[in-house]
Amino acid sequence: MTNRQRLLGILLAAVGLLVLPILLQGFGSAWVRIADMALLFVLLSLGLNIVVGYAGLLDLGFVAFFAVGAYMFGLLASPHLSDNFPAFAAFFPNGVHMPLWLVIPMAAALAGIFGILLGAPTLKLRGDYLAIVTLGFGEIIRVFMNNLDHPVNITNGPKGISQIDPIHFFGFSLGQRWDFFGYTVTPVIMYYYLFLVLVVVSVVICHRLELSRIGRAWMAIREDETAAKAMGINTRNLKLMAFAMGATFGGVSGAMFAAFQGFISPESFSLMESVMIVAMVVLGGIGYLPGVVLGAVLLASLPEMLRYVAGPLQAMTDGRLDSSILRQLLIALAMIIIMLLRPRGLWPSPEHGKSRKEQNSKNKVSGQEKAA
Protein backbone atom coordinates (compact mmCIF):
# COMPACT_ATOMS: atom_id res chain seq x y z
CA MET A 1 0.00 0.00 0.00
CA THR A 2 1.45 3.36 -1.07
CA ASN A 3 1.47 6.48 1.11
CA ARG A 4 -1.19 8.04 -1.10
CA GLN A 5 -3.52 5.07 -0.67
CA ARG A 6 -2.88 5.04 3.06
CA LEU A 7 -3.66 8.76 3.33
CA LEU A 8 -6.86 8.30 1.31
CA GLY A 9 -7.93 5.47 3.61
CA ILE A 10 -7.30 7.60 6.70
CA LEU A 11 -9.33 10.49 5.23
CA LEU A 12 -12.25 8.20 4.37
CA ALA A 13 -12.16 6.67 7.86
CA ALA A 14 -12.10 10.16 9.43
CA VAL A 15 -15.10 11.30 7.40
CA GLY A 16 -16.96 8.09 8.26
CA LEU A 17 -16.31 8.53 11.99
CA LEU A 18 -17.44 12.16 11.89
CA VAL A 19 -20.68 11.34 10.06
CA LEU A 20 -21.44 8.13 11.99
CA PRO A 21 -23.34 9.63 14.98
CA ILE A 22 -25.52 11.74 12.68
CA LEU A 23 -26.47 8.62 10.71
CA LEU A 24 -27.06 6.57 13.86
CA GLN A 25 -29.26 9.31 15.31
CA GLY A 26 -31.76 8.54 12.55
CA PHE A 27 -32.29 5.10 14.12
CA GLY A 28 -32.54 6.49 17.66
CA SER A 29 -30.31 7.83 20.40
CA ALA A 30 -29.75 4.32 21.73
CA TRP A 31 -27.49 3.51 18.78
CA VAL A 32 -25.42 6.64 19.34
CA ARG A 33 -25.11 5.65 22.99
CA ILE A 34 -23.78 2.24 21.91
CA ALA A 35 -21.14 4.02 19.80
CA ASP A 36 -20.23 6.19 22.82
CA MET A 37 -19.72 3.16 25.05
CA ALA A 38 -17.71 1.44 22.32
CA LEU A 39 -15.30 4.40 22.23
CA LEU A 40 -14.94 4.27 26.02
CA PHE A 41 -14.05 0.57 25.81
CA VAL A 42 -11.57 1.35 23.03
CA LEU A 43 -9.89 3.77 25.43
CA LEU A 44 -9.80 1.09 28.13
CA SER A 45 -8.45 -1.52 25.73
CA LEU A 46 -5.66 0.79 24.58
CA GLY A 47 -4.58 1.20 28.21
CA LEU A 48 -4.65 -2.52 28.89
CA ASN A 49 -2.76 -3.18 25.66
CA ILE A 50 0.20 -1.25 27.10
CA VAL A 51 0.32 -3.60 30.07
CA VAL A 52 -0.58 -6.89 28.38
CA GLY A 53 0.34 -6.34 24.73
CA TYR A 54 3.57 -4.36 25.05
CA ALA A 55 5.00 -5.37 28.43
CA GLY A 56 3.48 -8.87 28.59
CA LEU A 57 2.04 -8.42 32.10
CA LEU A 58 -1.30 -10.22 32.44
CA ASP A 59 -3.59 -7.82 34.32
CA LEU A 60 -7.06 -9.10 35.26
CA GLY A 61 -7.88 -6.20 37.57
CA PHE A 62 -7.75 -3.34 35.07
CA VAL A 63 -11.32 -2.35 35.87
CA ALA A 64 -10.02 -1.06 39.24
CA PHE A 65 -8.45 1.95 37.51
CA PHE A 66 -11.69 2.48 35.63
CA ALA A 67 -13.46 2.61 39.01
CA VAL A 68 -10.87 4.96 40.55
CA GLY A 69 -11.31 7.51 37.76
CA ALA A 70 -15.10 7.24 37.86
CA TYR A 71 -15.37 7.68 41.63
CA MET A 72 -12.87 10.54 41.64
CA PHE A 73 -15.00 12.49 39.19
CA GLY A 74 -18.24 11.36 40.84
CA LEU A 75 -17.15 12.65 44.24
CA LEU A 76 -15.83 15.97 42.97
CA ALA A 77 -18.65 16.66 40.50
CA SER A 78 -21.69 15.80 42.63
CA PRO A 79 -23.27 17.16 45.84
CA HIS A 80 -22.33 13.97 47.73
CA LEU A 81 -19.33 15.35 49.63
CA SER A 82 -21.08 18.65 50.45
CA ASP A 83 -24.12 16.77 51.77
CA ASN A 84 -22.10 14.43 54.00
CA PHE A 85 -19.16 16.59 55.12
CA PRO A 86 -19.98 20.04 56.57
CA ALA A 87 -16.32 21.11 56.45
CA PHE A 88 -16.23 20.40 52.72
CA ALA A 89 -19.51 22.30 52.26
CA ALA A 90 -18.01 25.30 54.06
CA PHE A 91 -15.14 25.50 51.55
CA PHE A 92 -17.30 24.68 48.53
CA PRO A 93 -20.88 25.74 49.28
CA ASN A 94 -21.90 25.29 45.65
CA GLY A 95 -19.93 22.09 45.15
CA VAL A 96 -16.86 21.44 43.01
CA HIS A 97 -17.65 21.63 39.31
CA MET A 98 -14.38 20.77 37.56
CA PRO A 99 -13.81 21.77 33.94
CA LEU A 100 -12.56 19.32 31.33
CA TRP A 101 -8.89 20.39 31.46
CA LEU A 102 -8.79 19.55 35.18
CA VAL A 103 -10.78 16.31 34.96
CA ILE A 104 -8.47 14.52 32.53
CA PRO A 105 -5.10 15.23 34.26
CA MET A 106 -6.47 14.51 37.73
CA ALA A 107 -8.08 11.21 36.67
CA ALA A 108 -4.91 10.17 34.84
CA ALA A 109 -2.64 11.11 37.78
CA LEU A 110 -4.75 9.37 40.43
CA ALA A 111 -5.13 6.20 38.39
CA GLY A 112 -1.39 6.25 37.60
CA ILE A 113 -0.62 6.35 41.33
CA PHE A 114 -2.88 3.35 41.88
CA GLY A 115 -1.13 1.62 38.98
CA ILE A 116 2.22 2.07 40.71
CA LEU A 117 0.71 0.81 43.98
CA LEU A 118 -0.41 -2.32 42.16
CA GLY A 119 2.84 -2.80 40.28
CA ALA A 120 5.28 -2.29 43.17
CA PRO A 121 4.39 -5.47 45.14
CA THR A 122 4.07 -7.61 42.01
CA LEU A 123 7.42 -6.93 40.33
CA LYS A 124 8.72 -10.46 40.88
CA LEU A 125 5.50 -12.19 39.83
CA ARG A 126 4.87 -13.53 36.36
CA GLY A 127 2.15 -15.34 34.43
CA ASP A 128 -0.66 -16.91 36.40
CA TYR A 129 0.56 -15.59 39.76
CA LEU A 130 0.50 -12.02 38.50
CA ALA A 131 -2.97 -12.55 37.05
CA ILE A 132 -4.28 -13.80 40.42
CA VAL A 133 -2.83 -10.82 42.31
CA THR A 134 -4.22 -8.27 39.85
CA LEU A 135 -7.57 -10.05 39.96
CA GLY A 136 -7.58 -9.68 43.74
CA PHE A 137 -6.66 -6.00 43.44
CA GLY A 138 -9.63 -5.35 41.18
CA GLU A 139 -12.00 -7.09 43.57
CA ILE A 140 -10.55 -5.24 46.59
CA ILE A 141 -11.25 -1.88 44.95
CA ARG A 142 -14.83 -2.92 44.14
CA VAL A 143 -15.44 -4.20 47.68
CA PHE A 144 -14.03 -0.97 49.12
CA MET A 145 -16.34 1.12 46.96
CA ASN A 146 -19.23 -1.07 48.06
CA ASN A 147 -18.53 -0.69 51.79
CA LEU A 148 -17.14 2.82 52.28
CA ASP A 149 -20.50 4.17 53.43
CA HIS A 150 -20.05 3.40 57.14
CA PRO A 151 -19.05 4.78 59.61
CA VAL A 152 -18.09 7.64 57.26
CA ASN A 153 -20.09 7.84 54.06
CA ILE A 154 -17.49 8.35 51.34
CA THR A 155 -18.77 6.34 48.36
CA ASN A 156 -22.44 5.91 49.37
CA GLY A 157 -21.94 2.14 49.22
CA PRO A 158 -24.10 0.01 46.92
CA LYS A 159 -26.54 2.90 46.41
CA GLY A 160 -23.96 4.66 44.28
CA ILE A 161 -23.41 8.34 43.54
CA SER A 162 -25.95 10.26 41.50
CA GLN A 163 -26.42 13.84 40.25
CA ILE A 164 -22.97 13.85 38.66
CA ASP A 165 -22.27 16.90 36.52
CA PRO A 166 -21.80 16.50 32.79
CA ILE A 167 -18.53 17.54 31.19
CA HIS A 168 -18.30 21.30 30.63
CA PHE A 169 -15.66 23.75 29.40
CA PHE A 170 -15.76 27.47 28.58
CA GLY A 171 -19.39 27.56 29.69
CA PHE A 172 -20.26 24.85 27.17
CA SER A 173 -22.03 21.88 28.78
CA LEU A 174 -22.27 18.52 27.05
CA GLY A 175 -25.32 17.63 29.11
CA GLN A 176 -27.81 19.74 27.17
CA ARG A 177 -28.96 20.16 23.59
CA TRP A 178 -27.32 22.75 21.36
CA ASP A 179 -28.38 24.15 18.01
CA PHE A 180 -25.76 24.54 15.29
CA PHE A 181 -26.85 26.01 11.95
CA GLY A 182 -30.41 24.91 12.54
CA TYR A 183 -29.45 21.34 13.50
CA THR A 184 -30.07 20.17 17.06
CA VAL A 185 -27.16 18.24 18.54
CA THR A 186 -28.05 15.94 21.42
CA PRO A 187 -25.74 15.23 24.40
CA VAL A 188 -24.96 11.69 23.21
CA ILE A 189 -23.62 13.08 19.91
CA MET A 190 -21.44 15.66 21.68
CA TYR A 191 -20.05 13.00 24.01
CA TYR A 192 -19.31 10.89 20.94
CA TYR A 193 -17.07 13.58 19.49
CA LEU A 194 -15.34 14.14 22.85
CA PHE A 195 -14.65 10.42 23.22
CA LEU A 196 -13.49 10.23 19.61
CA VAL A 197 -10.93 13.00 20.22
CA LEU A 198 -9.66 11.19 23.32
CA VAL A 199 -9.38 7.90 21.41
CA VAL A 200 -7.46 9.52 18.54
CA VAL A 201 -5.04 11.20 20.98
CA SER A 202 -4.63 7.89 22.84
CA VAL A 203 -3.91 5.99 19.62
CA VAL A 204 -1.22 8.52 18.69
CA ILE A 205 0.34 8.25 22.17
CA CYS A 206 0.31 4.44 22.06
CA HIS A 207 1.80 4.40 18.57
CA ARG A 208 4.63 6.73 19.59
CA LEU A 209 5.24 4.65 22.72
CA GLU A 210 5.41 1.48 20.63
CA LEU A 211 8.11 2.96 18.39
CA SER A 212 10.09 4.54 21.23
CA ARG A 213 12.97 3.08 23.22
CA ILE A 214 10.56 2.49 26.11
CA GLY A 215 8.21 0.51 23.89
CA ARG A 216 11.02 -1.63 22.54
CA ALA A 217 12.23 -2.26 26.07
CA TRP A 218 8.71 -3.33 27.07
CA MET A 219 8.63 -5.78 24.18
CA ALA A 220 12.03 -7.14 25.18
CA ILE A 221 10.66 -7.76 28.68
CA ARG A 222 7.60 -9.42 27.15
CA GLU A 223 9.69 -11.81 25.08
CA ASP A 224 12.25 -12.71 27.77
CA GLU A 225 12.56 -10.73 31.00
CA THR A 226 15.79 -12.48 32.05
CA ALA A 227 17.48 -11.70 28.75
CA ALA A 228 16.25 -8.11 28.88
CA LYS A 229 17.70 -7.69 32.36
CA ALA A 230 20.99 -9.20 31.21
CA MET A 231 21.15 -6.60 28.42
CA GLY A 232 20.97 -3.78 30.98
CA ILE A 233 17.26 -2.93 30.79
CA ASN A 234 15.87 -1.69 34.11
CA THR A 235 12.96 -4.11 34.21
CA ARG A 236 11.67 -2.85 37.57
CA ASN A 237 11.16 0.75 36.50
CA LEU A 238 9.84 -0.18 33.08
CA LYS A 239 7.25 -2.58 34.51
CA LEU A 240 6.12 0.10 36.96
CA MET A 241 5.92 2.55 34.07
CA ALA A 242 3.78 0.10 32.09
CA PHE A 243 1.35 -0.31 34.98
CA ALA A 244 1.18 3.46 35.52
CA MET A 245 0.79 4.34 31.82
CA GLY A 246 -1.91 1.75 31.29
CA ALA A 247 -3.74 2.87 34.43
CA THR A 248 -3.89 6.50 33.25
CA PHE A 249 -6.02 5.45 30.27
CA GLY A 250 -8.35 3.57 32.62
CA GLY A 251 -8.66 6.58 34.94
CA VAL A 252 -9.53 8.99 32.12
CA SER A 253 -12.03 6.53 30.72
CA GLY A 254 -13.64 6.13 34.15
CA ALA A 255 -14.04 9.89 34.60
CA MET A 256 -15.66 10.15 31.16
CA PHE A 257 -17.95 7.23 32.04
CA ALA A 258 -19.11 8.92 35.24
CA ALA A 259 -19.87 12.19 33.43
CA PHE A 260 -21.62 10.38 30.60
CA GLN A 261 -23.81 8.20 32.83
CA GLY A 262 -24.49 10.75 35.58
CA PHE A 263 -24.56 7.85 38.05
CA ILE A 264 -22.01 5.27 39.22
CA SER A 265 -22.21 2.27 41.53
CA PRO A 266 -19.87 -0.65 42.36
CA GLU A 267 -21.88 -2.98 40.11
CA SER A 268 -20.47 -1.16 37.08
CA PHE A 269 -16.93 -2.33 37.93
CA SER A 270 -17.30 -6.07 38.40
CA LEU A 271 -14.88 -8.84 37.48
CA MET A 272 -16.85 -9.47 34.29
CA GLU A 273 -15.86 -6.02 33.01
CA SER A 274 -12.16 -6.83 33.50
CA VAL A 275 -12.57 -10.13 31.66
CA MET A 276 -14.35 -8.38 28.79
CA ILE A 277 -11.56 -5.80 28.46
CA VAL A 278 -8.92 -8.55 28.34
CA ALA A 279 -11.05 -10.40 25.78
CA MET A 280 -11.21 -7.25 23.62
CA VAL A 281 -7.41 -7.02 23.52
CA VAL A 282 -6.86 -10.74 22.85
CA LEU A 283 -9.73 -11.12 20.39
CA GLY A 284 -8.68 -8.16 18.27
CA GLY A 285 -4.96 -8.87 18.17
CA ILE A 286 -2.79 -8.46 21.23
CA GLY A 287 -0.08 -5.82 20.92
CA TYR A 288 -1.40 -4.41 17.62
CA LEU A 289 -3.33 -1.12 17.76
CA PRO A 290 -5.75 -1.66 14.83
CA GLY A 291 -6.61 -5.11 16.17
CA VAL A 292 -7.17 -3.80 19.70
CA VAL A 293 -9.50 -1.08 18.41
CA LEU A 294 -11.42 -3.59 16.28
CA GLY A 295 -11.80 -6.05 19.15
CA ALA A 296 -13.02 -3.35 21.52
CA VAL A 297 -15.60 -2.02 19.06
CA LEU A 298 -16.93 -5.50 18.28
CA LEU A 299 -17.18 -6.76 21.85
CA ALA A 300 -18.62 -3.46 23.14
CA SER A 301 -21.33 -3.26 20.49
CA LEU A 302 -22.05 -6.98 20.02
CA PRO A 303 -23.95 -7.46 23.33
CA GLU A 304 -26.24 -4.53 22.56
CA MET A 305 -26.90 -5.63 19.01
CA LEU A 306 -27.66 -9.18 20.16
CA ARG A 307 -30.55 -7.80 22.20
CA TYR A 308 -32.47 -7.70 18.93
CA VAL A 309 -31.62 -11.37 18.31
CA ALA A 310 -32.24 -12.69 21.83
CA GLY A 311 -35.75 -11.18 21.99
CA PRO A 312 -37.19 -13.13 19.00
CA LEU A 313 -35.42 -16.33 20.14
CA GLN A 314 -37.01 -15.95 23.57
CA ALA A 315 -40.42 -15.49 21.93
CA MET A 316 -39.87 -18.67 19.87
CA THR A 317 -39.39 -20.67 23.10
CA ASP A 318 -42.48 -19.14 24.74
CA GLY A 319 -40.31 -17.31 27.28
CA ARG A 320 -38.59 -20.44 28.61
CA LEU A 321 -35.15 -18.88 28.01
CA ASP A 322 -34.15 -15.67 29.76
CA SER A 323 -33.13 -13.07 27.17
CA SER A 324 -30.10 -11.83 29.14
CA ILE A 325 -28.74 -15.36 29.62
CA LEU A 326 -29.39 -16.14 25.97
CA ARG A 327 -27.55 -12.98 24.96
CA GLN A 328 -24.49 -13.97 27.02
CA LEU A 329 -24.63 -17.43 25.44
CA LEU A 330 -24.61 -15.93 21.95
CA ILE A 331 -21.66 -13.66 22.87
CA ALA A 332 -19.65 -16.63 24.20
CA LEU A 333 -20.50 -18.68 21.10
CA ALA A 334 -19.39 -15.87 18.79
CA MET A 335 -16.09 -15.48 20.69
CA ILE A 336 -15.38 -19.24 20.55
CA ILE A 337 -16.01 -19.34 16.80
CA ILE A 338 -13.78 -16.31 16.18
CA MET A 339 -10.91 -17.71 18.26
CA LEU A 340 -11.16 -21.08 16.50
CA LEU A 341 -11.03 -19.46 13.08
CA ARG A 342 -8.56 -16.70 14.00
CA PRO A 343 -6.44 -17.95 16.94
CA ARG A 344 -4.05 -14.96 16.74
CA GLY A 345 -6.89 -12.45 16.75
CA LEU A 346 -9.07 -10.80 14.15
CA TRP A 347 -6.32 -8.38 13.09
CA PRO A 348 -2.95 -9.68 14.31
CA SER A 349 0.32 -7.84 13.97
CA PRO A 350 1.73 -8.32 10.44
CA GLU A 351 5.32 -8.38 11.73
CA HIS A 352 4.69 -11.65 13.56
CA GLY A 353 3.30 -13.34 10.49
CA LYS A 354 6.08 -11.96 8.33
CA SER A 355 8.83 -13.17 10.65
CA ARG A 356 7.21 -16.58 10.87
CA LYS A 357 7.06 -16.91 7.07
CA GLU A 358 10.69 -15.85 6.79
CA GLN A 359 11.68 -18.35 9.46
CA ASN A 360 9.76 -21.13 7.70
CA SER A 361 11.41 -20.28 4.38
CA LYS A 362 14.87 -20.28 6.04
CA ASN A 363 14.16 -23.65 7.67
CA LYS A 364 13.00 -25.01 4.32
CA VAL A 365 16.16 -23.79 2.57
CA SER A 366 18.41 -25.20 5.29
CA GLY A 367 16.57 -28.52 5.12
CA GLN A 368 17.08 -28.69 1.37
CA GLU A 369 20.78 -27.90 1.78
CA LYS A 370 21.17 -30.69 4.32
CA ALA A 371 19.36 -33.13 2.05
CA ALA A 372 21.64 -32.17 -0.82
Question: What are the key terms here?
Answer:
single chain, 372 residues, globular, mainly alpha, 4 strands
Q: How would you characterize this protein structure?
A:
With 372 residues, this protein is mainly alpha-helical. The chain is built from 16 helices and four strands. The strands form two sheets. The chain has a two-stranded antiparallel ribbon. The protein has one domain.
Write the layout of secondary structure elements.
Layout: H1 3-25, H2 29-54, H3 63-76, H4 80-84, H5 86-91, H6 100-119, H7 127-147, E1 168-169, E2 172-173, E3 178-180, E4 183-185, H8 187-211, H9 213-223, H10 225-230, H11 235-261, H12 271-284, H13 289-305, H14 307-316, H15 323-341, H16 350-371
> How far apart, in Å, are the first and last alpha carbons?
39 Å
| Widest sheet, order of strands | 1-2
Q: Return Rg in Å.
A: 23 Å
**Low-confidence spans: pLDDT under 50, at least 5 residues?**
none
Number of strands: 4
As for the number of domains, it is 1
